[in-house]
Amino acid sequence: MNTAPEVSAMQTTPRLEIRNLVRHFNGRAVVDDVSLRIQAGQVTCLLGPSGCGKSTTLRIIAGVEMQDSGEIYVDGKLICDTDYRVPPERREIGLMFQDFALFPHLSVGDNVAFGLKGTKEAKRARAEELLARVDLLRFIDGFPHQLSGGEQQRVALARSLAPRPRIMLMDEPFSGLDNRLRDGIRDETLSLLKEEDTAVLLVTHEPEEAMRMADEIALMRGGKIVQQGAPYNVYNRPVDHAAVAFFSDTN
Ligand code: ADP
Ligand code: MG
């Protein structure tokens, strides 16, 4: 558990800031005035029950979904509002999802280097560096099917981090994994993320995951962020009865 000062108390320009994001589907606001600030080196967990609008928020930040209103800033620079939009591939955002499959026909090393710019040697060197950090360098010339689910997940993480994204968006990245493996991979992922100069927004419906990984938790319900703060504070000072119920529900 992390009891670092809350992001809002810091004065530096956030790596990622979203202001007043709104998105309707069929006349219903599924993202309803969501604002967040995340510093480089910080992990914020967007935590809430299924259907509360977490993935839609993430998809808007990634640029694959459009907001009805609101703005997104990276390092203080506007990248998206209703009139102006930097395309997804130019946002320097890394993505990781539960079913973010590796390319089966590419070697593990080529999977990690996929999409990198530069010489063949430079790309190989970056793949080696990241695979060493997830302790899978020995598989660099192997293929995804030779790896376990947990190992494939670590390769996917290495691949997302290879281009040095300014922001990492992770949508329930561990939910496909065996319970037995999950804690270890969560811890390993966290330490790797902390070594990179990136701001992390991690979506989860599991309080335990948010408590384990977050510097800050943004508790979401019905499209709104209902409470935000350090994990310890959110857990110990729940905003209402629904928050108590959500945290005590073991899923
Ligand atoms: P979460 O990730 O928290 O489970 P989502 O962001 O996926 O929630 O979905 C929030 C709500 O928006 C849900 O009710 C979902 O059915 C609805 N929704 C999401 N995407 C679409 C879409 N493309 N068209 C219509 N409704 C959608
Ligand atoms: Mg979702």
Automatic annotation (TrEMBL):
Instruction: Determine the domain of life of the protein's source.
Output: Bacteria
Keywords attached to this Swiss-Prot or TrEMBL record, sorted alphabetically, are: ATP-binding, Cell membrane, Ion transport, Iron, Iron transport, Membrane, Nucleotide-binding, Transport
What are the protein's GO molecular function terms? ATP binding
Which positions fall inside the ABC transporter domain? 16-247
**What's this protein's name?**
Fe3+/spermidine/putrescine ABC transporter ATP-binding protein
Q: Which residues of the full protein are shown?
A: 1 to 251 of 367
